[in-house]
Amino acid sequence: LEGSLTFCVQLEHRSPRGSEEVLARLPIPARLLQQAVNQPGETVQVPQELLTVSPESVCGDLLSGAGIRNAMWLSAFSEFWQLLLDVAHLLLFLCLALAPWRLLQCVYFACRPSQVWRGTLARQLSSLLLVKEAMLKIYRRELEPLLNAAAKDPPFRTSEKLREVAAKLLGRLPMPGKNGEMGLLSELQASNDEVAMAFVEKVKNYSFLQNAVSSYWPGLTLGANLLLLKKSFNPQEHALSLEKIASAQSRADDLLLTLAAEVQAASVEFHSPNDAGLLSSACRKPLSEHRRLVQIFACEVLKDYGTLLLGFLLLISVYRLPAVVEGLRQERQADFVQRMRIVLGCQVRLFMWDLWMLFTAILASLLAIVTLVRALEFLRTAFLHCESLEDLRREAWDATKDALNSIGELFILLTFWDSYKTLVYASIFAVLLPAWGLTLLPIWMRIVLWLALCFLPFLLPSASYALWTFAVVVAMFFLIALVKKGSGSGGVPAHLKTMRVSGMNVLVLLSIFTDAALLSSLTYLEPVLQMELCFYIATGITIAWLVVMSMPHAMSSDQNCLKSGKFHVALQLLRRCLLPAAVVLLMQMDGEFSRVACLLLAFLSFTSVLGLDLLSQDHLPDAIGLDLVQPPAFLAGLIFVQMVFTAAQNMTSMWPQCAAAVLMPAWVMVFQCLGGIGGPLWVLPLQLGTSTVVLWSALVRAMPAMSAVGGAAVVTLCAVIAMLLSECLAQRRRREAMEKAGVAKVLRQILDKLTKKGMQLENHHTPQICDTLSPQSVAKELQAFEESTRMEGLSVSFLQNRKEWLATLRRGRNDYEMVAECGHQLLEGVCTPPSTLQIFLLMRRRSGRRIPTAIWQIILEYLSDVRYVSKMLGAVVNHFGSGGPGQQLLRAWQVMDNLGQRVAATTAVMDMTQSQILSHSLARVGLPVTVESAAGPSWRGRVVGTTRNGVWVEALDPSSWRNGREAKGIFQFDKVRMEKQSLEERIQEDLQIWWREARGLYGDGCRCGRPLHPPTRGVGWCDCFRRRKYQFCCQNCWASNYNPTPHSDGCNTRTARSKDFSGPRRLAPGCPRAVELTEAVAILEPATE
Q1: 156-178 burial string, b = 16+ CB within 10 Å, else e?
Q2: Which strands sit side by side in the sheet containing 916-917, from one edge to the other?
Q3: Cβ-proximal residues to 281 (8 Å cutoff; 6+ apart), any chain
Q4: Is the pTM above the cut of 0.70?
Q5: Inter-CA distances, 594 with 463, 589, 591, 970, Å
Q6: What gap in Å lies between CA 647 and CA 521, rounded to an integer?
Q7: What average pLDDT does the structure give for the chain?
Q8: What is the pLDDT of residue 84?
Q9: How far apart are CA 729 and CA 682, in angstroms?
Q10: Partner residues linked to 24 by β-bridges
């Protein structure tokens, strides 16, 4: 034992009542006891001062009644517990035989000096940081375009969305876990070795700077851009802020490389003594270190077998293997085993998430289909718009919730008159809707004529007579409407139209083929089409068609369905796909269903052929993805010709069938001469080809000697050749139109300007410029140009009108002239007028040497007074704090938003001519004020919030908080006076406030600069496993309430003990902790290079 160790010997006595009493206490140093043992038989004198001094002053606090017997029991139990631990670790060591490679490593490090093990841990930690840096580079590369897009669209950018974006990006990357890094750091810190502690400090600085470089300075750039759009910064202040942020970002990148080299060099500085043997090294180590080695390698065995299991699981999944290979190729300098574990862990986590998403998506989809209310809408959205399992699950849950809400609302609303009124309206409009197409007649005469026609199938001896009567009436009024209203084929030329790959376009193309196939095979399908089930199917299609057609008239103006994409999808689905099939089915009905089928055909023919106004496609939204839009008059004539052809199939003679079949290609050619059938240029040969196939089938039935298959093949081949020639002709015309509009020239000018000025993102997609692009493709490439342009490379006027520019680009995507006009607007937004930052960059590039930042500040001060922003940004950009990438991004946004509020308050102060009473219109967050107190003297403070009738004021001097309750709180406007200050005084006060709050903002502390209150557990039994986290240091702090006492005693005690409390770190070699304000003046402005 050490000689300075002191024992306390005490004489105890048990009283008759059973209580223990201490009669006397004597402190005896261990050196006296050792002297007595070494000199047996001799007397050792105890110094006089030990007999008179208080034992508590020598030994500390003592427990009464603690004797040697109790100490022996405690020692025995302690040694027994150590023995149990030894046995447990011995068994654990034997279990390492399951992984012999780990057993050999454990024996090796147990026999080697401790420095060898620490060096291995240091190299593992260094390798882990290499992997982290590689992943953070990918994260930063993907984050910058998102932040650039967010800066261009400033509304609705909240802290939650920034946190969500960071979490989503980090979740897809194989980032090393925080627990692994902290575990290695704790192992090195437990050694208390000077070399290890120095290495740990370097690693912490390196890790903090990695997180800050990936998110903090990009977040500051986002905040500066948002402040420009909110007009909190003027162009000069915005240019200065971007210059300072870019300079700090560059210095941070250089410092990161320096720290990486220092960490790599420090990881090999752990040397071991050469003269120590294996056995002596093992015996010199404490037993706790051997136990810890066994524990670590037992965990490594579990990790090894877990890695094998995860690899086998990913091998089964197959689709995650390319991502595994890509992850292993990222940072080859790092340890392969660590990279394998990190990549496999990330991919397995994503694989399990995919399985969960698949299970929940299937469950939600089944619920959405079972509820039936939104089943078709959900299926349409799932097949057309859902690109991932997450989108599918979200749409399914939304459809299920809407269905349940709709069912509940249905049972409630059926008891009210509005529901009955809507039902009656819909029924009336569905019955009288066909009368709308009887033009040139008064409304009452249309209704009378239509009702009279409805009774014809039941009055005439044969339903065929009524059918031909309907045909004559429909043909007459259709020709009248065609002459009166025209073909309606004007608009974009056919050679400028292209077709996207979308669900609606594919559906329309399939409908063209299926109509031709159905009409060509009527003779073969006649027994099937005359079944009773087909009649019910046709009846359902007719009712659905009438309901959809009557919706715009039955619904109120507030619920206009013409603006709904769902209504147009249902209308196009019925009109292009199901209506021809319903006509064919009803035409084949005879017997007891013939008269009802004739009446249903009247409804279909009058609404689909004569309702040109009802079938207008002026309100067709672009969101449904339908490019193959044809004029309503062409579709009406085509369905009428199909009705005539189907009716002619019931005749005994074949030549009327052939004459009716000739009408289909003839109608296509006639309407093409009238103005065009719509769609791209290759649609005409496609429509002619399908119509000719129907004609050829009718000729084959009239003349059986003709070959049906050979003729159809020839017609199909001719149609394909014509389609190819039409597309080539369209490309040539598009090239001529592009040259005439100068679209390619504008795109090249934009690309050259952006490339020369360096205003494009580093990892952007380079738009392709081709002379045969369609207007839609040109609009898409132009939008890609705008997305790849940095926000600071666009003028403020363009950014303010960006939404209108995008809307104009979408509306004019079929016209080269409008696309070229949008290109000229983007070119003007990029080039003229040039921003202050672009001028500075140009001057810097043309100058022979790099001009120092101080000179730029002088130039800016000549243009505008930017001293306040310069001083405050000097503190912001040159300091960073701890936390992950998501926390760094959120902190940067909060810092810049706070700076914007202070700049607005400073501007308001500078605009004042004299002190005045504060008003609601003049109140700004951060505004310096003087509060007139009724209980004492007036005190100075700043506004930290506004209410309807007053302001929330905080005292500038924390010592004034002890003076009373009125030193902080909410005050009426008439008790608060604005102060006129000089700019230097304003800068000094705000810098003091910033330094006071910096430890809480950049570290894990309260806004007052003290450590946060430690987490506590709940009181109840259900809350015993929950940990409540605090955002303040104590209940008496200004951050929580307005108690007159500034801090509690416990807070003062925690503050005194928290010497290692993490605050802001300075962007300097070694990343030291930030100094106090009195020493920080010299570092606010970096030294000029």
Answers
A1: ebeeeebeebbeebbeebbbbee
A2: 916-917, 976-978, 928-931, 939-946, 950-955, 969-972
A3: 111, 112, 113
A4: no
A5: 6, 5, 6, 83
A6: 14
A7: 76
A8: 92
A9: 10
A10: 11
